[in-house]
Design a protein that fits this description.
two-stranded antiparallel ribbon; 8 strands; elongated
Length: 348
């Protein structure tokens, strides 16, 4: 009687199965090394397109070679986590409506790391990265086969669209890499570029962040340029417009599955209602309303600044009292935006 020999399952397959089991929607593996887009990223910064994001130029040498941020790492497990492109559009970008994805994804990648140590029976040197450290994670994700660079600079996956977060676990284990995603499936489409209300795209795949609504409402700490305010409309935190119009998202974006990303109450309303409530918050109510939220990045003064601009665009005379009341305790920067909103409403 012959003996059936069962071949061992490659560890790469086991890693992917475990990652999917942890809730990730995409998983790929790549080798670390020189980053193909590093030179273009350096040029982008030199052109001033990063604006006030002074943290981006730091660690340039490490950013150019993904082996350098974490000593000894040679491979990366790159994951994607859907955040619900089928959710309704609104004044807050979909990614920021629930709990902070950095914390959730880092925990799960750390759990994957511990599992790998158990599976291989030895300590594994590695680290989880989720928008942290000098790593071009979008580049890693393409090399791991997760998608291509869309003309709006987002990574696009042919089965998921672009409404997903990217994270990576770098380890000192030699893993067989997946094939990189080589195709450009945008074709001649320019819907994302044409739809941008502030004309933030210098060219295909080149974004001037200083004209981007997401940058203006999240990363910029000072005044929003007057010439951008009207085109921001009712957007209060971030912008999904260039993703909303993408045909790949229209067809392949998925429903939200992760409970942690469910919309919190304070942002579950129309722009006018959200803006009015934000203007009434004090430090204590802000902390309570946005506990574990990525929206804390803008801080309360930034959200009030954004709320004033949005209310100036979508509000009416019945909102003037709310704006004037908020002006009393506002700092100089926020007052300038409230004054703009009052003037705009009065001139309509």
């Amino acid at each position: 009687m012959s003996t059936v020999v069962v071949a061992p399952v490659p560890v790469e397959n086991l890693i992917k199965a475990q990652a999917y089991g942890l809730g990730f929607d995409l998983v790929g593996i790549t080798r670390l090394g020189p980053m193909e887009t590093a030179a273009k990223f350096d040029e982008w910064i030199d052109n001033g397109y990063a604006g006030e994001m002074e943290y981006l130029p730091r660690g340039a040498d490490k950013r150019r070679d993904s082996r350098l941020p974490f000593t000894g790492a040679v491979s990366a497990v790159v994951v994607g986590l859907n955040y619900g492109g089928r959710e309704k559009s609104g004044p807050v970008a979909r990614y920021a409506r629930g709990d902070d994805y950095h914390d959730l994804m880092t925990r799960r990648l750390t759990e994957l790391h511990r599992w790998l140590e158990t599976e291989l029976g030895r300590p594994i040197s590695g680290k989880a990265y989720v928008d942290t450290g000098p790593i071009l994670e979008r580049d890693l994700a393409r090399r791991a086969g997760l998608g291509w660079f869309g003309k709006n600079t987002n990574l696009v996956n042919p089965q998921l669209g672009s409404f997903f977060f990217i994270g990576s676990l770098v380890v000192d284990v030699e893993l067989d890499p997946d094939d990189p995603f080589e195709a450009d499936r945008c074709g001649t489409c320019t819907r994302c570029l044409d739809a941008c209300p502030t004309n933030a795209f210098v060219d295909q795949r080149i974004l001037d962040a200083t004209r981007c609504i997401s940058y203006a409402t999240i990363e910029a700490k000072g005044e929003i340029p007057v010439e951008l305010r009207e085109n921001i409309g009712g957007l209060i935190y971030g912008c999904d417009i260039c993703q909303d119009v993408c045909p790949w998202n229209a067809r392949f974006a998925r429903e939200l599955r992760e409970p942690s990303f469910r919309m919190r109450r304070i942002v579950d309303a129309d722009a006018r209602s959200v803006a009015r409530e934000l203007l009434t918050l004090d430090a204590e109510s802000f902390r309570a309303a946005f506990k574990n939220s990525p929206m804390k990045r803008a801080k309360l003064r930034g959200l009030k600044r954004n709320a004033a601009v949005a209310l100036g665009n979508v509000g009416d005379e019945s909102d003037l009292a709310r704006l004037r009341a908020a002006r009393v305790s506002a700092d100089e920067m926020v007052r300038a935006h409230i004054d703009w909103a009052i003037s705009k409403i009065e001139s309509n």
